[in-house]
Write a structure and sequence with these properties.
By secondary structure, the chain is an alpha+beta fold. It is built from three helices and five strands, in the order αββαββαβ. A hairpin with a 5-residue loop joins strand 1 and strand 2.
Amino acid sequence: MSIQNLSTFDPFADAAGRDEGVQDGLVHIRIQQRNGRKTLTTVQGLSADYDLKKIVRACKKEFACNGTVVEHPEYGEVLQMQGDQRENICQFLTKVGLVKSEQIKVHGF
């Protein structure tokens, strides 16, 4: 009788093949607290087909705030906007037609 329990099964094999940072095609919009009343809004999960710098430029002009594209080691390229812009970004992304409203997941308080 031999033990074949741990020989070839890899429980994380299916996870290695998926695209990193994009989970089920969802766009995650989060808020991060900085110091005091200052906050950052991050947008993660947008398709790599879009020019993220142009999206940030349009958001900066529309919302009158500053923003940038940051390379995150785990999530890929992430948009950062100053202030609590969660609702504005949701409306902007659906209005422009980049994502559907079902694909947006908003996090935060």
